[in-house]
Every structure is written in C-alpha cells, then in structure tokens.
Amino acid sequence: MAEIKGIFLLDGVVLVPNVSPDRRATTVRIEKLRVVGGDLPGPLSATRTATIHIPFEDAKAGVTVRQVVRGFARVSPGARGVILAQLGGATHQIPIPPPGSSGEDLVYEAESTIPAGRIYLATFFLLLERDADRPEFGGDLAIESLDVEILAPTPPDA
What we know:
five-stranded antiparallel beta sheet, 13 strands
C-alpha cells in the first residue's frame, strides 16, 4: 500500500508540513509564496515559483491523489495576474477574481494519477504585472497551502 515518504521543498519558500498518522494525507502550509505589486518605484512585474517534492513509499502501482490548493488573490484594474500549478503531472490555471474585485480566498481542487515509481511534484508559478503609467495599480497573489490525499492505488491494467 502506498504511503507518503516525506516532503521536500526545493525552493526558498518556507513550508510547514503535517503528515497524517496513517501517512496517506498531508497538508503543507506554505509561507512566502506570494507576489505583491504596485507603488513606485516598484517593478512592472513580479514572479515567484516553488516546487514541492513528495515521494511515496511502497507505491508498486500508480497512485491517485486528490489535491486542494488554497490561497488569496486581489488584482486591481490596470494590473494582471495569473497562477499556474503543475500538480501531479498536469498543468492547471487557478482561477483568480477579476480585476477590481475586493479580492478573495482561492480554493482549487484536482485529482491526479502518479505512475508507479514516480515522485509527486507540485510546482507553482505566480505572475503579477501592472501598467507602467499607473503605479497605483497592482495586486497580491499568494498560495498558502497544499493538501494531498492518497485516494486509491491505480489498478495494474490502467
């Protein structure tokens, strides 16, 4: 039966992992995976990336996982933002509120199947850019946590 072996963050973002006692689920609280833009003399764009590496122990068959990404987004008119996530081998664009909204918490769910012998990776890319002639425009994008739960082994003939 597959079990989570550990959690490794390969970038400079801070994380606090919590693995369930049965080692079939984890919550990774993520700190400093955030981009903020606006005000002079700030840059016209800001990016931030992080990759989380979760190896599985005893994964002799493929493993299906449920992933929940949580964060926050606020983008003012005249600015643009995007959050991309590579979750378990598939690329996702996480929806953010339209420019001018007051900002909101983000919750994004996805399922992935990790082939036998492969390591689970989650990579996040945050981009925020603003118009050069309107320095008061900007925004705030953040990823705050990632939940990964093993749902079931993948049948060998899948």
